[in-house]
Amino acid sequence: MVILENDFIKATISSKGAEIHSLINKANGTEYMWQGNPDVWAFHAPNLFPVVGGLKNNTLNAKGQAYTLNRHGFARNVTFRRIESAPLQAIFEYRYDEETLKVYPYKFEFQVIYHLERGRLRVSYKVINMDEGDIYFSVGAHPAFNVPLTAGESFEDYYLEFEKEEALHTHWSNSEGLLSGETSEVVLAQNLLPLKRDLFAHDALIFKNIQSRAVTLRSTKSDKHVRVSFPYFAFLGIWTKADAPFICIEPWLGVTDTAEGHADISEKEGIQTLEKGHVFETDYCIEVG
User: Fold this and answer.
1) How confident is the model at residue 265 (pLDDT cuts 50, 70, 90)?
2) Sheet holding 2-5: strands in order across?
3) Which of 12, 164, 212, 288 has the most crowded Cβ, counting Cβ within 10 A?
């Protein structure tokens, strides 16, 4: 494990998946990250690459061939190499190899960079094209936060505060976790979305045209909060499991397949195109209080 620490927060990060395991506010001693109970959901904050969400029949169509690639890609399950570790910053790297080429036919380097900025953790993604031509990918974050953050509170004591006024519609998933084509309105009260279990009757809330560049998890009974800011991400997912004491706030550049699937990865919704020799960079931030 790698520990980053300043006067305000302490972050613990694993080389497996380059995943945040812990984020503690030193002023109040609170652990903000879900602790990955394997009986509920074994992850904490997986990094999603080279796809976000599921593929129809777990099939990626690329370079005229079909490849088997599981939901959210492989980055969350592989061991990254730590190429830099300092008190305030750590850089993790994963490069293509024979195994990745069997499921994703592109040569790449994927870096996840963590940097502490007072009470904020910045998570940056860097993709380097090492292939002979264009590469296609999605990237996303899946951080899970404890709800409740304070003993004696409940899931329903919490709400999400959107940065801007929104007219939100969520895109439903079918039983295979693919977009069904159905949508429904998600009504906010003065930019606030109270958390209720039935919000997730159709799995994650998936927002495609969100105007807000930040969402804050707050309680009606205490001042503890988590703000996730995502200035460069086109999609946002909000998810929890039935009766689980966490909520995921997920900035994505990409989205799960439709029920019809995709003819080629280059045509898949939200896919990023990166030219030979070029570098892609983006980031999001988690701020706790």
Assistant:
1) very high
2) 2-5, 9-14, 19-25, 30-31
3) 288
Report residue 269's pLDDT band, with 50, 70 and 90 as the boundaries.
Answer: very high
Structural domains in the chain plus CATH codes: 2-288 (2.70.98.10)
Contact 109, 85 (CB under 8 A): no
Q: Is 111 exposed, middle or buried (0-12, 13-18, 19+ CB in 10 A)?
A: buried
Other Cβ atoms within 10 Å of 4 Cβ, number: 21
**Any idea which of 85-89, 123-127, 135-139, 270-274 has the lowest mean pLDDT?**
85-89
Least confident of 96-105, 136-145, 171-180: 171-180
Amino acid at 193: L
Query: Whole-model pTM?
Result: 0.95
Paired with 20 in beta bridges are 13
Percent of the chain with pLDDT over 70: 100
Give one DSSP letter per residue of 15-43, joined into a string.
TBTTEEEEEEETTTTEE-B----TTT---
34/164 Cα distance (integer angstroms): 27
Q: How many CB atoms are located within 10 Å of the residue 187 CB? A: 9
- The residue assigned the tokens 């592109």 is 106
Specify the residue for token string 């061939």: 65
**Mean pLDDT on 283-289:** 98
Report CA 188 to chain centroid distance, whole Å. Answer: 23
From 106, 16, 111, 107, select the one nearest 67 (Cα to Cα). 106
Tokens of 92: 């993790």
Distance of CA 157 to the CA centre of its chain: 24
Radius of gyration of the chain (CA): 18
Neighbours of 238 (CB within 10 A): 21
Question: How much of the chain, in percent, has pLDDT values that exceed 90?
Answer: 91
